[in-house]
Amino acid sequence: MRPADSDPMPLPPREPELDECCGSGCSPCIFDLHDMAMERYREALRAWRERHPEATQVESGA
Q1: Residue 37's domain spans which residues?
Q2: Is 51 within a domain?
Q3: How far is CA 45 from CA 23, 27, 36, 38, 53, in A?
Q4: CB atoms < 10 A from the CB of 46, how many?
Q5: Contact, 16 vs 34, CB < 8 A?
Q6: In 3D, which of 3, 5, 13, 6 has the Cα closest to residue 45?
Q7: Is residue 7 part of a domain?
Q8: Is residue 36 domain-resident?
Q9: Residue 17 lies in a domain
Q10: pTM for this entry
Q11: 2, pLDDT greater than 80
């Protein structure tokens, strides 16, 4: 198991502001890109929690 400081917990991507969307129906839209980034983040977080079960216990208050 690696120390947490050499394997930091992933951070979620910044959510775009509503005015960052141009409204012209781009494909992919900036919000679609954010959704894809959130899915990658969730996967990375899930993997990180598997590597750091002690952090999950701290998050849940156990």
Answers
A1: 25-62
A2: yes
A3: 31, 27, 14, 10, 12
A4: 10
A5: yes
A6: 13
A7: no
A8: yes
A9: no
A10: 0.77
A11: no
- Tell me the chain's radius of gyration from C-alpha atoms: 16
d(C-alpha 57, C-alpha 3), whole Å = 16
pLDDT digits (tens, 9 = 90+) for 15-51: 999 999 999 999 999 999 999 999 999 999 999 999 9
Token duo for residue 60: 């849940």
In Å, how far are 16, 32, 35, 39 from 27, measured between CA atoms?
A: 16, 8, 13, 18
Question: Helical H runs in the chain?
Answer: 30-51, 53-60
Q: Please tell me the total count of domains within the chain.
A: 1
Long-range contacts of 38-43 (CB under 8 A, 24+ apart): 38/12, 38/13, 41/10, 41/11, 41/12, 41/13
